[in-house]
Amino acid sequence: MVFGDFAPATSAGWARARGYVSTDHVGGLIMSVGGPIEIGEKLNAMQRLSAVPLIVGADVEFGTGYRARGGYFLPNAIDLGGATVFPPEMGIGASRDTALAYEQGRITAIEGRAIGIHIAFAPVLDVNNNPANPVIGVRSYSEDQRLAAALGSSFVRGLQEHGMIATGKHFPGHGDTDQNSHLTLPTITVSRARLDSVELVPFRAAIAAGLDAIMTAHIALPAILGDSSTPATLSSRVMTDLLRHDLGFRGLLITDAMDMNGVLANARPGRAGQVLVGQYGTINSIGLTEACKRAIEAGADVLLMPTDVPAAIDAVLAGIQEGRFTAARVDSSVRRILALKERIGLQRDREVALDSIREVVGDSNNLNIARRAAEQSITLAKDSLRLVPLARGSNGARILSITMASRSNLGAGVAFLAELRRGVGGGVRIRDEYVNPDDPGANYARLLAAADSSDLVLVSSYLAPSYSASASSAAAPVIDFLRNLARRRPRTVLINFGNPYLFQQVPEIGTYLIAWGGFPMSQRAAAEALVGINAISGRLPISIPPSLSFGRGEMRTPVQPATTTSRP
Q: 203 lies in which domain range?
């Protein structure tokens, strides 16, 4: 994995990146976060170092801007902009709009190729039918397999018809689990019949749409494999028999990251080896070696993000020498990768034109489509007192706006509050408060007192999935506060920019608006929906027990302002 940061020629970061190409001779890279220009420049430099063109992938699930943004400048939290960002997939699911899914794919492909990215590790085709899922959540289109299939296949067509390789993930489905495969090996106890009728439906649709690549899931399927210790990534019964033979997939098969405990923790260690500290904790180098061999045996073409690149290469060679698999088996994967490189034109033009990036990336037409997607995603799941839309231009009204987000989320609430103030007009007094839910000294009593003296309370939640579990010790003070607030101040609106399943713990809340993601585009869309500038048309692509059913959503039409306001 390579960061798209500015890396001077003498820096350790550049030496590490250069070593992947000049010393290890990798065939491709995964690009992490960075600014568009920095990513393009660094990839050009790395392409020039390589004898064979490199193929570059990135997790651009929510658009190229999901990885290629400039971040925030400190200490002022100035948004430095970048490539186009869309709402998370579940927000697209709320819109039910396959044309938007296609447009997202098209724009992601055009902007991604402009900065040197060739493979989108997207779309997420998991059916998120477990509200406690800690790792998929809003990355999935829906809990409904047919909706996920329609939107996912549209996204695939948008990408691939505009020059980028789509990767459906995480095969055969990571939605029905309450564990995180980065940290452990989740177990999904479903039958083959259930896989066929639910989890595999989006993958079949995407394959029919011409899907070029699939990423595996580090999950155990005891009903399929007969044990709960083998990740699907390392099983030929899943990767070859099910995917290649039964589903007829002929494209590129990529493992999920090989630094995740879901694949390393259960690989046979063989003997004691060098202990490494990876991204997700301590792992064993012999475990990595064995995992790489078993992934190739299972049918993988690409070993993604091994913690130790030379050890992974040596493992492939050792596997041939040990008779675990043949050189012809490895050559078949190499030919598949080279054929893709040729098909997308890397043999003709491996570098990108840096002068053209500003003409393509973040183009105003692209941003307008992303804004429309954000607006159509807004979902009013509940509004018992019909508080939405808010009264605009109501002189003297007092609104308390509380932003709940971790300290590291620099952009939380910034765009929302700016748009809210413009929308309600100068006669409305807005008091904004910020609370870090991870701060054990957070003064919730002070916030409740402030709520008592307000006409309306808005709570903007950017909380992670762990806060949907009432058993979480970190979540308990937050949940208690929200429940007390709902009892004391019925005129409270909970606006969710994080985990939509939070409502399970606070069904007392009378008004619940879901924006699905916390990027500035979604923050502005939520504020404009609240004050009636835009219509609200989203419908839940999931159910949120105990009371919010799949498809629920209250519709609102735009209202004329009581006083003149300007829209940016």
A: 2-266
